[in-house]
Design goal:
This protein is α/β, with parallel strands linked by helices. The protein contains ten helices and 15 strands. The chain is 41% helix and 23% strand.
Length: 261
């Protein structure tokens, strides 16, 4: 395969997945990792991507860049729906408990499917969220108790943040939390670009007895600006692809269950 063909493959997969891995690309294309690194260097020189540890991300991506909730809903939407469907398996027959929903498009997909899950399992839930879109979705369900946390709403994510949100979360001890993330890596854990959003995510993680993190494959190896949880602070990672060897090893060492959609 010529360099131009390889590089076209790389840019196509980058557009689809939001990140590419040197090791995965080398396996896919049957070439050495050194060849892939040279291709990535060439594409970075053209301004088509940005090199990061182990691979590359789109040129516009950075540790503090953050798409809006509307943009997120259009990216990897099939994967997010599949992840949400798998994550709802944590709600078993006759489940009783309090559940916190974080902000984010994948968490929103969980909220969209929970009514059907309640009907199938006979679950009874008291639900808390700080995310306006999630609150709207859940408000339409007749069979749950819903509490919406206040605070200053960030336009980018439509989620409440700030002291009042953190103060409310400090009084809670939910049985379960569904948490979204912008990145998950072996070295840095779970991360997100905004410090205020990260503070709320940390509060949710630390309040819940069981934490279910949701991340499609494009989040693997991504390290956003602010870490909000170490790997050993989550119980289950639900994703659409098996993590690469370093991340899989780190998750196993941290005692995290990996559920594939």
């Amino acid at each position: 395969m010529y360099a131009t063909e390889r590089q076209a493959h790389i840019t196509r997969h980058l557009a689809e997945r939001g990140r590419v891995s040197v090791v995965v690309l080398a396996d896919d294309l049957g070439v050495t990792t050194e060849t892939i690194r040279r291709d990535l260097d060439a594409l970075e020189h053209q301004g088509l991507l940005r090199r990061v540890h182990g691979g590359a991300v789109p040129a516009r991506a950075g540790s503090v860049s953050e798409p809006s909730i509307a943009e997120r809903m259009t990216v990897n939407s099939d994967a997010k729906r599949a992840i949400a469907h798998r994550a709802l398996d944590v709600i078993t027959d006759g489940y009783r408990g309090a559940v916190v929903f974080d902000a984010g498009s994948t968490v929103g997909a969980v909220a969209a499917g929970i009514g059907e899950r309640i009907a199938a399992t006979g679950a009874r839930l008291d639900v808390v969220t700080h995310a306006v879109p999630v609150a709207h979705t859940l408000s339409l369900l007749p069979d749950i108790g819903l509490t919406v946390l206040g605070g200053q709403v960030r336009g980018l994510t439509a989620a409440a943040v700030g002291p009042s949100t953190l103060s409310a979360l400090a009084t809670l001890r939910p049985d379960l939390a569904f948490v979204g993330t912008n990145g998950v890596s072996a070295e840095f854990g779970l991360s997100t670009p905004d410090p205020a959003e990260a503070a709320v995510k940390t509060a949710i993680v630390r309040s819940a007895r069981r934490v279910v993190a949701l991340a499609d494959r494009a989040k693997f190896g991504v390290e956003s600006f602010v870490r909000f949880a170490d790997l050993d602070e989550i119980d289950i990672l639900v994703t659409d692809a098996a993590p690469d060897r370093p991340l899989a090893a780190a998750l196993a060492a941290a005692g995290v269950e990996v559920w594939l959609a």
